[in-house]
Amino acid sequence: MKSSYLTFALRRIAQAILVILLAYVATFLVISVLPGDPVTSMLNNPENGFSPDQVHQIVAYYRLDQPIPVQLWHALSRFVTGDLGLSLRTNLPVSHMITGVAGSTFALAGEALGVAIVLAFAIGYGTYALPRWAGRDVLRAFPSLFLSVPNYVIGLIFLVVFSFHLGLFSVIDAEGPTATFFAALTLGIPVSAQLAEVVIANLDHEASLEYASVARSRGLTQLSLFVRHLLKPSSLPVVTVIALIVGELLGGAVLTEQIFGRNGLGSLVQQSVTTQDTPVLQAVVSLSAAIFVVVNLAADLVYPLLDPRVRGTRTSTGPSLPAPGRTPGPFTPSALGSEEAA
Hints:
Elements (H helix, E strand, L loop, with lengths): L1 H32 L4 H7 L7 H11 L5 H13 L13 H36 L6 H5 L1 H7 L2 H15 L11 H31 L2 H8 L4 H23 L1 H15 L4 H11 L2 H29 L1 H10 L15 H9 L1
Helix pairs in contact: 1-4, 1-14, 5-9, 5-11, 5-12, 5-14, 7-9, 8-9, 8-12, 9-11, 9-12, 11-14, 12-13, 13-14, 14-15
């Protein structure tokens, strides 16, 4: 079992590395091959103030006087060693510029993910435990409502109500805990809709199974049944969905930072687009792809450890694990029992 899992893990890690390299190559080709070379345009623009010596150094560093395959080879060689190049705007290492602001973006995205998970399970539990007269059906409409409202609209509402009118936070102190909380709410509310849909569907399925009826007949309360028997099987598909929404979280974080005036990857991307600082743009795109791949890889590796049925499938057939987006059927104690009996 251990050797089979190790083989599967190594193969998935190799695939993840290949995907990251392909994402970097694709970004490089989009910037370098398409008409209208932004790097040359920026270097030749007298308003940018590059001296002839600086232009010569930049051309030599990026091999801009060489054919595209040579430029790609040198860029790829630097990338695998962690060298993301030099910014054309600041002449600083791109890796230093990214690490200086990425922490704020990752903190916002992480807090927003926490908000989304709490909201999703709160809505899911409400649709399962609340009686109809208490608004159970209304809660079922919340995911659709959250999806229909863009996060920039939610952010503007929070700014107007809680900052301008109630004064709970200041847009000047955009990095403060209160401002960060409302920024995380802005980002987490739309994302929670997808998680809530999955939780509600799986709770409905699990609650209708025989083992849940038996547990109720033994006198378990709704809360006990939820915590002891329904929470785990309903949570497993959420792992897959979380891996899929990482890209949405990062993209939303960039927009949310602009709404709340926070420093982060969003402001860095905006400045880079304005000044045509392509090395920074390429590095941010590659970083986003790498994060998405790594999170999906982690989900792939963790899923068989959480779901015994998937672990059984892996040990018998090798690397045939369900990738994110290919969620296996709901896990139930009765199903596991039947498999073990077989």
